[in-house]
């Protein structure tokens, strides 16, 4: 077994164990178990970082596969989670980040090679901006989604005056999850806008026009408008709580459709099947 294959298998095992142990720790309300889950995920993230570095050293950017970029997205998602966990101490978001990172990493192993005639002199600027800013934005969007789901669950319990039981007793306040939504939206929307803008510039250079009416472009524009709506309403109208949480969940769902449904099943420049 080669070193890269060994690293790949190690990442899958560590992410899988981190997810399972995290679930077990939440259900049993054992803090030591959830800490162990965090360390398993951190270890997987460290090995994941090594794999990305080794791939970069082994190949040029032009030779990178679409699977590699999916692995970068998986890595970016966990990076954002760790930053939010470090700043806000909301370990509960791991239940969203770890499983999604695992699924993205596994799916990356089945994606074909990128075929691109993009000029090497330009790819370093616009392509890097496009990929990097979008991946960080999607990581933030995932955290807003996770925080939104927990907010809606806890909010329903409180409004119905249901007695909190199990892991729900250990959940932070509603305000803590709303704060995650706020930070993720305020940081994520500018990054998503930068990613879209650089992508259109890249597309103009690659295909001769910024907008080609590609399905991916159309869905991404819808995502941008919803993201802009959430950003504006939080910033200008003071949106908080349930409305912001619901829109964040729908925004993430549409993004998943864009990433999976469009990239896999529709004719697009971004297809994972070509």
Give a verbal description of the structure:
It is a single chain. The chain is mainly α. It folds into two domains: 1-117; 123-273, Four Helix Bundle (Hemerythrin (Met), subunit A) (Up-down Bundle), CATH 1.20.120. The protein has helices at 3-28, 31-58, 66-88, 94-108, 120-159, 174-207, 215-235, 242-265. It is flat and about 60 Å long. Residues 71-266 form the Cytochrome c assembly protein domain. GO terms for molecular function: heme binding. InterPro entries: Cyt_c_assembly (IPR002541), Cyt_c_biogenesis_CcsA/CcmC (IPR045062).
Distance between the termini: 28 Å
Report strand %: under 5%
Rg over alpha carbons: 19 Å
The low-confidence runs, each spanning 5 or more residues with pLDDT under 50, are 112-119
CATH topology of the largest domain: Four Helix Bundle (Hemerythrin (Met), subunit A)
CATH class of the largest domain: Mainly Alpha
The gross shape turns out to be flat
**How many β-strands, per DSSP?**
0
Major sheet: none
Kindly state the percentage of residues in helix: over 70%
Mean pLDDT: 80
- State the helix count: 8
Order of helices and strands: HHHHHHHH
> How many domain modules?
2
The CATH architecture of the largest domain is Up-down Bundle
Class of secondary structure makeup: mainly alpha
GO molecular function: heme binding
Domain Cytochrome c assembly protein: 71-266
Transmembrane segments: 6-27, 39-57, 69-86, 91-111, 131-154, 189-207, 219-237, 244-266
Pfam family, one: Cytochrom_C_asm
């Amino acid at each position: 077994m080669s070193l890269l294959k060994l690293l790949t298998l190690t990442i899958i095992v560590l992410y899988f164990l981190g997810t399972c142990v995290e679930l077990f720790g939440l259900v049993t309300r054992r803090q030591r178990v959830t800490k162990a889950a965090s360390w398993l995920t951190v270890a997987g993230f460290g090995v994941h970082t090594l794999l990305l570095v080794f791939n970069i050293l082994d190949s040029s950017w032009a030779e990178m596969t679409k699977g590699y970029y999916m692995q970068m997205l998986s890595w970016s998602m966990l990076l954002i989670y760790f930053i939010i966990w470090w700043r806000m101490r909301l370990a509960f978001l791991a239940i969203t980040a770890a499983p999604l990172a695992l699924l993205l990493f596994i799916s990356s192993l089945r994606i074909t090679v990128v075929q691109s005639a993009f000029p090497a002199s330009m790819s370093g600027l616009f392509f890097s901006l496009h990929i990097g800013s979008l991946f960080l934005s999607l990581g933030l969007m995932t955290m807003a989604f996770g925080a939104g789901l927990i907010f809606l669950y806890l909010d329903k319990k409180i409004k119905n005056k249901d007695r909190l039981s199990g892991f729900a007793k250990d959940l932070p306040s509603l305000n803590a999850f709303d704060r995650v939504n706020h930070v993720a939206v305020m940081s994520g929307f500018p990054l998503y806008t930068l990613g879209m803008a650089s992508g259109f510039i890249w597309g103009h250079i690659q295909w001769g026009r910024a907008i080609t009416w590609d399905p991916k472009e159309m869905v991404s524009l819808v995502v941008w408008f919803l993201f802009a709506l959430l950003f504006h309403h939080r910033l200008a109208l003071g949106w908080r709580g349930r409305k912001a949480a619901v829109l964040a969940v729908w925004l993430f769902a549409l993004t998943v459709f864009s990433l999976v449904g469009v990239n896999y099943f529709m004719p697009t420049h971004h297809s994972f099947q070509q």
